[in-house]
Amino acid sequence: MRAFPVRMPSGGRYWTVIDEVYEVEPIADRYLRELRFGRDRAESTTKAYAQSVSLYLRWCASTDREWRTAARHFGLFMVWLKYTPAGTGGRVVMGPGAEPVRKESRINKILVATRGFLMFAVAAREAPAWVMEQLYEIGDNRDLPFAAQGESSQLQYRLRARHRLHEPETAVDRATDAEIVALFRVCHSARDRLIVLLLTRAGLRRGEATGLRRSDLHLLPDNTIHDCPVEGAHLHVVRRDNPNGAWAKSRNARAVPLDFLTVRAIDLYLLQREQQPAATECDFLLVNLFRAPLGAPMTPDALNELFESLCRRAQLTRSVSPHQGRHGFASNLADSGAVLDEIQALLGHASPSSAEPYLHPSQARLRAAIERVPSPRELTEGLQ
After folding, report:
1. Measured distance CA(25)–CA(164) in Å, rounded
2. One domain for residues 116 and 256
C-alpha cells in the first residue's frame, strides 16, 4: 500500500491509496476524495493523510489483521510505527537500544489521519460501530485549560482519543538571521532573491508564494486604483485551485504588508521576468526562467529544491527549509515587539494560539525581560 496522486478530468487533484498492483483501495479513496472536495482540504493534506492511511493498511496486511476491526490493537500499531522503517516489508526491527524510526509527533499525526479514516468507514457502514469505542473514550471539560472551558458552569462531555504519545516540548526550528543573509547572498537571480524575501520578510508559506498572481501585488501608496482600500505596498494571499499545485492553507484571504527590501526585490525581478518571452502570458508571479517549461508557474516543490541548492552553495552547517524562513519571520516579529494578534494576522492563522509555536524568544530578549524587573533597594544594600 502506498499513496498515489490523482488528477481529475476537471483538473482537481488529490492523493489516494493503491496496492502493489495499482488497484485503488475503495474506502480510503472515498475518504480522501471527501477530504479534498467535500471538506475543502488542501491537496497536500490529502497526501499526508493518504501516506498515513497506507501505513495503517500496510500494518494490517503484514500482521494478517482485518483493517475494519484492527482498531482494538491500536497500541500494537503504534509500536509498529515507532520501530518499523520504510522498506522492511512490515517487519518490526527491535532490540536492546533500538532507535525509534518515527518521532512522537509524527506518530500522533498518523493516528489522527487513521482515526479519521476509520470514523468515515463507520459512518459509511463499512466498519462496525463498536470501532468508535476503541478509538475514543468519553471525557469532560474538566481536563481542558480554564480558558477553553467556556462561561457555562455545567459539566460538558466530549470524545477524547484513547491513543496518543506524549510529545516532548521542543522549540520550533527557525532560520537565523545569519542563515537568511547567507542564503540571500548566494542567490544567482533576482527571482531567487525575491523568493527568499517573500518567505523570510513576508512570512509566506511556499504554497502561498507559488500561488501569487501579478494582480495580487498592490505596490502603490494609495491603491484605490486597484479598488483596494489597503494603503501602502502589500500583497494579497488568496486561496485558489492552481494548476501548479500551489494552495493557500487559510480559507480567508489576507493582505500582507511589504517592506522596502521586498518591494525593491519585486521591481528587480519583474525587470528580469520581462526578458523571458515565454512568461509574458502567465499571470503567476513566480515562473520558470531558466529551465523547461519556460514561463510556467513554479511549483511548491521547486522552492524546496531551491533552498537545498542555496544551503549547499552557502555551505551552511545544516539544511534550512522554506518553512523555517517563515518561523524566522515570526520570531523576528516577536523580537521587535509585535503582539500575538499582529503575528496571527500576518501569518494567516485563524486563532492567536496558532501563532504561539512560532514564537522563539532569543536569549537576549529573555535577559532583557529579567533586567527590566526592578530590584528593591533593601536587596541591593544587603549585598554590599
Report:
1. 26
2. no
What secondary structure does DSSP assign to 84-104, as a single string? --TTSTT-----TTPPPSS-H
Helical segments of 136-189, H only: 177-185
Q: Using alpha carbons, select from 141, 117, 137 the residue that is nearest to residue 127.
A: 117
Q: Is residue 376 part of a domain?
A: no
Within this chain, do residues 220 and 292 fall inside the same structural domain, yes or no? yes
* Chain centroid offset of residue 209 CA: 13
The candidate with the shortest Cα–Cα distance to 56, out of 1, 127, 128, is 1
Q: Indicate whether 157 and 191 sit together in one domain.
A: no
Q: Is the pLDDT score of 148 beyond 50?
A: no
> CB burial class (10 A; 0-12, 13-18, 19+) of residue 356?
middle
Cβ–Cβ under 8 Å, residues 247 and 44: yes
Same domain for 211 and 76, yes or no, is: no
- Domain with 13 in it: 2-144+153-161
Residues 352, 203 share a domain? yes
Q: Are residues 122 and 251 in the same domain?
A: no
Quote the CA–CA distance of 5 and 244 in Å, as a whole number: 14
Q: Do 182 and 73 share a structural domain?
A: no
Residues 59/80, Cβ–Cβ less than 8 Å:
yes
Mean pLDDT is lowest, of 26-30, 218-222, 230-234, 342-346, for: 342-346
41 grid coordinates? 482540504
Model confidence pTM above 0.90: no
**Given pLDDT bands bounded at 50, 70 and 90, which one contains residue 41?**
confident
